[in-house]
Amino acid sequence: MDWQIKNKAGSKTIDLSTHRLAAQQIITVLKNNQIEIDAIGHRFVHGGSLFDRTVRIDGSTLEKLKQCLPFAPIHNPNSYSVIEVCLEQLPGVPQYAVFDTAFHSGMPEVSKQYAIPRELAGKFGFYKVGFHGLSYQFVSSRMAVLLGEPLETLKLIICHLGTGGSSAVAVKDGKSLDTSMGYSPLSGLVMSTRCGDIDAEIVLEMIRKGYSPDEVSKILNNESGLIGLSGFSSNLKEVIDAGEKGNAICQLAYEVYAHRLEMYLGAYTWLLNGADAIVFTDEAGLKSWRLREKVCSNVQNLGVEIDVNANRRAPVDKATLVSSATSKTQIWVVPTDEEIVIFNEIVSQL
Predict the structure, then answer these.
(1) Which residue among 38, 100, 199, 282 is the active-site one?
(2) How confident is the model at residue 87 (pLDDT cuts 50, 70, 90)?
(3) How far is CA 152 from CA 17, 172, 277, in A?
(4) pLDDT at residue 74, rounded to an integer
(5) Catalytic (active site) residue 337
(6) What is the pLDDT of residue 72?
(7) Among candidates 162, 157, 165, which has minimal Cα distance to 194?
(8) What pTM was computed for the model?
(9) Which residues contact 213 (CB under 8 A, 6 or more apart)?
(10) By the 8 A CB rule, do 205 and 213 touch?
(11) pLDDT tens digits, residue range 253-280?
(12) Which residue, of 32, 153, 169, 284, is most buried by count of CB atoms within 10 Å of its CB?
C-alpha cells in the first residue's frame, strides 16, 4: 500500500484483498496524519428506481442501499462494505452516496421500457437505468467548455470504454437520451469479460441445459466479452496486438468488439439526428487509437471524418480534437474525472 498526503508519503505491505480492508487502512492513514474529514462521498453504481440523486446516508438510506445490492453484484456489495467501515470508524462524519445511475434517471420512457408485461416490469423494477453516469456527467460538461456552447444546446455521443465495463450514451440538451447498458451493467457493448447484448433465449437454454442462475451470471459477467471471444485476454490492446501478429481468433474478437460499438454509434447518430461530437473516454477509449480509427473511418457520408495523424498522436491525459477540419461531427478524446464529480456533489450538499 502506497500513500501520499501533501509532502508526506509512506508504503507498507499489507493485506488489501477486500474493499473493507482497504477502507480500514485508508482511514488509519488519515487518522495517523491528523487529517480532519468533513464529509465522505461513496460511488454507488446502481441505485435502481430507489435513488435518482445524491443522498445523505442514514438508517433509512442504508436499508434502501441494501435492497440495491443484487442490482450490480460486482460493485454494489463492495461499495456497501466501505460505507459500513466508514460508519464504524467515523460515525460523526456526514456521508453521501453518489449514483452512477442518477445521470440517466431523466431518460425518456421510450428508452427505459422493455417490451415485457407491464405488471412484471413494475413489480420487479425491470427498466433500463444506465451506468457510468459520473463519467458522463463530467465529460458532457467538459465538452460544453471545449466546444464553447451551452450544454443544453449540444448533441453528444460519449463512449466510456473501460478495462472492465464499457458503455455509450446519447446526450441531448445535457440529458441522457439513451444508453447501451440497461437494467444491469451486463447489456450493450462487448466488454472485457461481460457479454453485452445477447439473445435472451441463450440464457434460458443454458438454464434448461442444467446451468444454475449463479453459474450463468458468472459466465456472462466474468467469462464472456473479449476473454470469452478470444480465449486469450480481456485486455483490448493485447487482443488487438495478437490479432495483428496473426492470431485469427483474436482478430475476430476485436472486430466483434468494434462492430458492436459501430452499431451503437450509428443508432445514436440516428436518434440525435446527427451529433455535434463523438467523445472517447476511460482507459480503452483514451489509449486505443486503433479502435478509434477503425470505428470512425469510412463514414464520411455521415459527416464523420477522423484525422489519422492527430488520432494516433493523441495523448491520454489531455482533451484532444482528432477529427479532420472538414468533419461535420467533431471527434474528441477526453479524460474523465469521476472523483471530481463526487466531490462537487458532496460540496453542494454541505
Answers:
(1) 100
(2) very high
(3) 43, 7, 14
(4) 80
(5) no
(6) 81
(7) 165
(8) 0.94
(9) 207
(10) no
(11) 999 999 999 999 999 999 999 999 999 9
(12) 169
